[in-house]
Amino acid sequence: MKVLKRVLIGIPVALIALLIVFRITGLDPGERVPGLWLSGPTATEVPADWSFVNDPKAYATVKVQTRTWYLIPHSVTTTVFSHGGQLYLTSSYRPGMVFPRDRAWNRNFMRDPHVRIKIGGKIYDRVLTVVTDPNEKAEILKSKQAKYPEAKMDIPNVHLFRATDG
To answer: Angle at Cα 80 formed by Cα 75 and Cα 83, nearest 5°?
Structure first.
C-alpha cells in the first residue's frame, strides 16, 4: 500500500517537474511532430516588410506556438511566405478533413488568435486572421506558389492566415 501511494504521488510530481523543465528550455516541434513552448529570444523589433521569408533555403518552414484551453502551449511547423510585405501562414487539409476541427493548432488559434512564430532564431508575437475572400486568397497564394513551386495549390483545401501585430 505504501508503494502504491508513493507511485500515485510520484507520477504527478514528475509530470509537473517535466513541464517546468520544458517551460524553461522549450520544446520546439519537429518537422511532423508537435511541440510545446518555443525556445529562443523574443524579437524586440518587428520587420515592416516580411519579404525576407520568401527565401526558400533560409525559411522553408517556421514554428508556430498556439494557446490551448488547458494552458500548455501547442506548437507545430508550417509553411511561411510573404505577399506585399505581409506575413502569411498556411494549413493544408486533405479532402474530407474539416477546418478547423481536424488540426489542433487551427482550433487553438480560432479560439485565441494570439500566436508566437519562430522565424530563424527569433520569436515574434503575432495575431492570425483567416483570409476568407476567394479572390484575395487566390492572388495571395500565387506568392506561395512562387516560393514552393512543387506544392499543390488545391485552393479549397489550403487555408490562409495573415499574421499581424493585432
So the answer is: 145
The pLDDT > 70 percentage for the chain reads: 92
Q: Which three cell numbers stand for residue 148?
A: 514552393
Residue 81: in which H helix or E strand, if any? strand 74-83
- Phi and psi angles of residue 57, each rounded to the nearest 5 degrees, phi first: -80, -40
DSSP 8-state class, residue 60: S
Could you read off the pLDDT of 130-152 as tens digits, one per residue? 999 999 999 999 999 999 998 87
pLDDT band at residue 25 using 50, 70 and 90 as cut-offs: low
Coil, helix or strand at residue 51 = helix
* Cell triple for 52: 525576407
Cα–Cα distance measured from residue 166 to residue 160, given in angstroms and rounded to the nearest whole number: 17
Q: For the whole model, what pTM was predicted?
A: 0.85
70 DSSP assignment: T
